[in-house]
Amino acid sequence: MRKGVLEMCVLAVVSERETYPPEIIERLAEVNLPMKEGTLYPLLMRLKGEGLVDYVWREGIKGPPRKYFTITEKGRVFLRALTSSWHALVKAVNQTLAFSGSNPSVSAEEPPPLLNVESPRPTDDECAS
Questions:
Q1: Percentage of the chain surpassing pLDDT 90?
Q2: Which of 7, 27, 75, 99 is least enclosed, having the fewest CB within 10 Å?
Q3: How far is C-alpha 107 from the geometric centre of its chain's CA atoms?
Q4: How much is the pTM?
């Protein structure tokens, strides 16, 4: 589940504007979703391979050129679908949590007794015969 959530969050950040990986990491850290470069780069390459993001090389201000990522139209459609699924999941979980502690129609009776469904063990006399 975390993989899908990270994918959705990275796409959401990239959908805001053209950005490079350290900015993505910083943006996610700001909202308490820390991510390491070792997780982000393979995820970005997978998203690129799936046609959900693209990148361009830009000159670095104080160093080597950098890859700046953008979301593709296919990525926007995918992000909308992920977001819709996410909202449905959050709603279902919230309803389940609310239901579990506050539904008066749920019976507070004791559950029925357990059934002994194991076959009885043979007695010593049955084993001797």
A1: 67
A2: 99
A3: 34
A4: 0.73
The reply to whether 78 falls in a domain is yes
Indicate the residue type of 4. Answer: G
Report the distance separating Cα 31 and Cα 28, nearest Å: 5
Q: Tens digit of pLDDT for each residue in 51-99?
A: 999 999 998 888 899 999 999 999 999 999 999 999 999 999 999 998 7
Residue 29 belongs to domain spanning? 2-89
- 74 contact partners, CB below 8 Å, separation of at least 6: 51, 52
Instruction: Answer whether 9's CB lies under 8 Å from 24's CB.
Output: no
The answer as to whether 105 is a domain residue is: no
Distance CA(51)–CA(91), nearest Å, equals 30
Name the β-bridge partners of 71. Answer: 53
Q: CA–CA separation, 44 vs 56, rounded Å? A: 13
Tokens representing 53 are 């993001």
Residue 68: CATH number of its domain: 1.10.10.10
Scan for tokens 């990491």, then name that residue: 25
**Distance, CA of 95 to CA of 100 (rounded, Å):** 9
